[in-house]
Amino acid sequence: MNAWLRALLYFLAFLLLFVWMGLGLFDAQRAKDPIANWLSRQTGEPVAIGKLVFNPLHPYTLLAEQVSYGEAVKFDKVYIEVDSIDWLSRDVRLAHLDLIKPSIRWPLPNQLPSLPLRSLIVQDSKIDGLNLISDELKLQGASATLSNWQLLSPGQPVLADLSLNINRLETPKLTLTRLALAGKLQGQVVTTDRLVTQLFDGVAEAAVVLDWPARSLRLQDLKARGLRIELADLGDQPWPLRRVSLDRGDFQHVSLNSLTDEFSLNDFNGELSQFEWQAGTSPSGQLLGSLGDAGRGLFQLENIEGQLSFSGQQINATLKGEGYDGSFDTMFSLDPERQQLRLRQLTLTGMDISLPQGWWQAWQTARPTRLEISQLHFDRLRVLSFDDALPLSLSGWNLNLEQLALDGRHPLALNEQGLLNSDWIELAWDGLSARNGQLALSATPGLWQLSKLSSQLPDEGSLTVSGQWSTQAQPTSSLTLKAVQLDLEQWGKLLHSPLSFAGKADLDLNLQVSLPDWRTSLNGTLSLDARDPFWDKVKLDPLLDEWLAQAAPPGLSQDALWQAMQGGDTPFYQGVLAANIQGGKLQLTRGGASTITHLLALSGGLDLGSERWQLDVGVLNREGCAELIGQWRGPLAAPELAWQFSAGKASCDWQAGVSYPAQGRDTPIHRPPAPSPGKPAAAGSSD
């Protein structure tokens, strides 16, 4: 028995020595080249292994160093520890899989070879120092820990519990640093209850679900602190995502700026909820909070508070804040697609607003196609426009506007209660000034009524206007205007008059008309009295002296007459005009002007219905008789002129309304040269 036992022990000792010597003779280095060559043939890319160490005893371990797959994949070390292998079912379970300093350039040049396994599970895996570069992103210094990593499983996606730290992640739109998350990996979907990263000089954290095949990102309980976003840094590349959603986000001290567009939103503190965006559609959500300041160019608002809800169809906002040394409070709704703005309420108080050059054209470009105003209130505003297209200055301006709208360029009343009331201390427009003005206007969908428009003008002048405008034939539209000491030069510039006059004038208008046939329904009176007017760059006295010294009257057409009048200036002592209008026919009751040496008179009128002239112009002598008469006949746009001399007292019924100038010639004023001996005087001569 003892001998048998001794023999058995010797046998086991020799067997152990044989196995130990056999394993000692195994050298994994000899297998690295065949393995690398096999992988190269399978993938079509050169594969190199610097060092290979294998432990054939359980647990089986493999260490490969300096592994490379073409230029796309490189590892400093790959460590594998096998937990179990079922050769019959081709199931492999690894206890550890460690990848040290992998460097990957994506996409790979060729697909990796398929493993002859049915399932592959890694209990614990560590990836350290990962660098990955692709067309869509650049990842540097990443470390990851994966547990229960199901790499291969029949009918199942890749599954793993994941812990990830990334030193730097660059995408075409964003750069993230010091990113950390712990969650789950299911196929190409990453889910985490907490992701923390630094971006835009701030910090953000949230629960995240990233579905890469669907290009979808879902965020929950987002917290963002100190983000300073410059739009130019986002680049012009398209977003790789097609959908982004957020149930709730809390933002503190977040700023958004664009140096290119001179646009800024600074120090936002608030909440964004129910946010949803899909590629090709407008985002939707609700925003609540405060903003330190917002501006574009010289436009600047501060200390803004309010809430904003937005979708593809409508934006609703309630805001209040400060700006231009005053305050504002507003509620509005905007339909971006139809470009319609409904201003439910806007109040501006105590603001001192300066509008830069070009603002009016910018407004014309950006203004909505339809603007509805429920309530607009200005209190003690001062407005100064530096735009040559709208050279306006207002101080002490108060305004109350309700239930009015602008459709394109057409004003309209929203209901029966439209009104516009305003007053100002001083108004200036391109050199024309007015003080202590008042405006009162009411409107319904079919009728606009101007109860009062009044203001003081320079040199003890004044302006008062009232009337109504109807879109229907009944009631009639009307205008009553009374102006004292109007500055002809300034008002000529304001109304873009083709004639340049200077001086002062009083004007009275009282007109009634039924629309739309205003040319045949116009009725009323008008009266104009100008004192010391001056007609710039037009000569009359020298031209009249020349004509009155000729035997034959001038034969000038409308265009030739205007050309003959150029090249001088004409001062007047006085000019008056009075007319009655009945059924679109204007009939002068008085009309005349006295220059330094001549007295001119008008009679007749014009017919707006037939658009024809019936006007006579007379050059009167001291006795009030016309010695030269011009007749205007024919279409308003192209009248025909005829001139004639009148002999003796044939035409003395003129109602000039002004006195003959003191320096005017004695009668007769027509003094043609004496005829040569033996020749009769010219026909039409006053001699």
* Spatial shape: elongated
State the helix count: 7
Task: Tell me the number of strands.
Answer: 37
Contiguous runs where pLDDT drops below 50 for at least 5 residues: 1-25, 682-687
Quaternary structure classification: single chain
The main pleated sheet reads as: 37 strands, mixed
Straight-line N-to-C gap: 179 Å
Q: Structural class of the helix and strand makeup?
A: mainly beta
Give the overall average pLDDT: 87
Query: What is the CA-based Rg, rounded?
Result: 47 Å
Classify the helix fraction into a percent range.
Answer: 10-25%
Beta-strand level of the residues, as a percent range? over 45%
What does this 3D model show about the protein?
- This protein has 687 residues and is mainly β.
- Among the domains are: 324-443, no CATH class; 483-669, no CATH class.
- 11% of the residues lie in helices and 58% in strands.
- It has a 37-stranded mixed β-sheet that branches.
- A hairpin with a 4-residue loop joins strand 8 (159-170) and strand 9 (175-186).
- The longest helix has 24 residues, at 2-25.
- The model is unreliable at 1-25 and 682-687 (pLDDT under 50).
- Residues 659-687 are annotated as: Disordered.
